[in-house]
Amino acid sequence: MKRYVYILMAIAIGVFPLVVENTFYIYLAQTVAFTSIAVIGLNILLGLSGQMSLGQAGFYAVGAYASAILATNYGWPLYAAIPFALIVSGIAGTLVGLVALRTRGLYLAMATLAFGFIVEILSQRWVDLTGGTMGLMGVPTLDFGNFRMGPIYFFWVAGFTWLFVQIGSDYVFSSRWGRSLLAIKDSESFAQTVGLNVPIWRTGVFVLSAVLTGLAGTFFAHQNGFISSDAFSIQLSIALLVAVVIGGLGRSYGPVLGTLILLAIDEGTASLHDVSLMIYGGILLFVLLGFPEGAIGLVRKLMPSILSRALMAVPSSPAAAPLEEVFSQNRRRESVGLSIEAISKSYSGILAAQNVNLSVAPGTIHALIGPNGAGKSTVINVIAGLYGADSGRIRLGETYLTKLPAHKRARLGLARTFQNLQLIGSLPVLDNVLLGMERNVPRAGGFWRWLVDTNHERIARGQAMSILQFLGIEELAGHYPADLSYGHRKLVELARAVAQQPKVMLLDEPVAGINTHEVKEIGEAILKLRELGITVLLVEHNMDFVMRISDHITVLDYGLVIADGDPAEVRANPKVIEAYLGVEEETT
Amino acid sequence: MLDTYLQILVSGLAMGAIYTLTAKGLFIAHLATHKLNFGQGDFLMVGAFLSMSLIIAGIPVLLAALLVLIALGLLGWGLERLVIRPLDRFGISGGSTYSWILTTAGVALILQNIAELVWGKSSHYSPPLFSEGRDNVIEIAGINMFVEEILVIGFAAVVVAFFYYMLFRTRWGRAVYTVAFNPEAAMLLGINVRRTVVLVFVLASLLAGISGILVGPLITIHPHIGLMFTIKALAVAAIGGFSNPLGILIGGVLFGVAEAFSNYYDSAFGDLYPLIFVLVFLVFRPSGLFSEAQADVR
Questions:
Q1: First to last CA, chain B
Q2: Superfamily name and number for A324-428+502-587
């Protein structure tokens, strides 16, 4: 289906300048095409990865100036100047991305605002290089030496480049890439525990958005043969944000629609030049307060349902793959144990874990219990790599994990669930499970398969379905996490962890706060995991549950191991009884 | 030579005091709501223009200041009521978590445009508040200083002291910290969360107004100075980590002084160096001067 849409768009781009002979419209269409590219970059940055940038004009200026200066002052041909300008934009993106890595939300907005401001000042005042407000004259235009046909050629290049970028954006939005970015946006600690290298992803997105924005800047530089610093003010950054917001933030077709609407408004109100800022501000308020889903959201509401179904073919619930296929790898593998050797961890002087030793035998269910504040969650987080240990070592099978970041531990076969659930609210259940599978799905040829196949993730979806079936919740596949009961959400988290095909699973309070029936279901699911050869370490307060399913129990109190043994031994241990008696009322 | 340095130091302290006041507004709003006004600098610009017009019209300075503060208080109230609170109803599903950045920036654009229409696009000089002329100097220990600057520093210090008193010694200050800690718990404790939040934005905008009144005579004002103040106030608040009021005071003063000296040594790009320095600083101390980095673990 989408192949035909793309072919139609390509034909439209090819025919447009031949049918529309009015050069003014061709000029506008050029501007829509290359501005959309910058807006797509911002849409991926803000809409998918959730990183706010108020300084996109900076990247635009860097791309425009790099290409214009090289071509004008140094006589570089455009086919060399433009790619080089993209590299320069990418470098600028990396630098800002490094600041972005260390900061979040508000700080990031501030840092990017400052970046845009700095570039604006430099382009105004570094007159020797940029020509300042007087501008650079005689910048070569992209017309392939043909003055009369130049605008048409320019439109074709810009138009096809846009189409190419748009297809790339569609791919990102409907594949594992977009899913991973949404996961990082929602919760970074969660993203790490499914094996995503968060810093690389976040910087990578910044670089991508900088390069796309710089690309738009190079088109701008070679459109008119003249650029001046006036074009790169904060107003441009705001305009790009306005475009992405009007179109529909986080929708793949938002940028092109938003750019079209914004430029139409710009042209329609050209005579009202005095109030242009007010119009921009008014649009921002009107859209964000009235229609936060933007034009795409409106179009979806108004479009006849048959058409929308055909265009946005969401793969129907896939048939479940046989479970054997899903776990074939596990079966072939030996079970692996986990050992924690003399781990200590303190928070500003308070010892949460003191010299904790724990040995989880391969293929068993091991429980870590203790009164509130005993240090159980600390131990789990230290094993998963979200906290660094002050001393001690962690070994998974024969591999020492102590120095590895969380995402590498996840890739080695360590999966976990969270005490406070971490599900990605903007994705349906099945996609949440798919997030766990990213490491195991073959990646080669992903783009081409996506291009020709409406259901390109058929195999992975089948497997995810089968995991849901395994846990008895296949009917929830299409629901969003917010619509599920607490117990069901716990099961979905478990399904996501299972999808990682882990060797060892860490379960942080798997049955806290759910009803007796659901406790039973989860208990059975955990026993089934053991049958599959997965080693389980769980933290839990529900003693009946722990005593029923555990092979081995370790008891912590005040950060110290006070007992260790099988359920019967632990139950009879006087130290354990003492530790629990004093807090009986609180723990219930 | 020493004279020059001391004069630069005093100018730097005066601007630093302005940045600190503006940044306090960002800090208090962010503390209570995790949101702030990206048009804080534009509110300052409005304050500066209003006070200029009123004083030129012959209204006594104190009355003019009072009128400006009433106007800015209303602006702050309207901002919270009309473009920040309504976003709550979309929850996480609509738009982005940071919609408030764009709506407050939208208000800033509208204010800039109104200022352009009322006062024109060119630069203006505001009459001095305290002294008779713009260039009125006073000799302290044998060095000539601008009276205006000295008094701005003194007045800003009083406002900052009052701000600390409000925050740490009054019921209202405790309410702000309670709301910051947990709005639901605050509600259960009988604190009127909505009123506290509105008051916080009113106070933030009053601080921008005071800054605007004070800064008018020190610089030339035009409708687009706001962005620069927003950026610098954000930078100053970031040095303090948005959580430590003392850090903001130190950050503001350091920033103002550093900027004054940097402008002295490089008149073309002097204002950029402190900003670049803050960006680099954020890479190494992302949560500011005094705060510890907190792991995002749930």
A1: 57
A2: P-loop containing nucleotide triphosphate hydrolases (3.40.50.300)
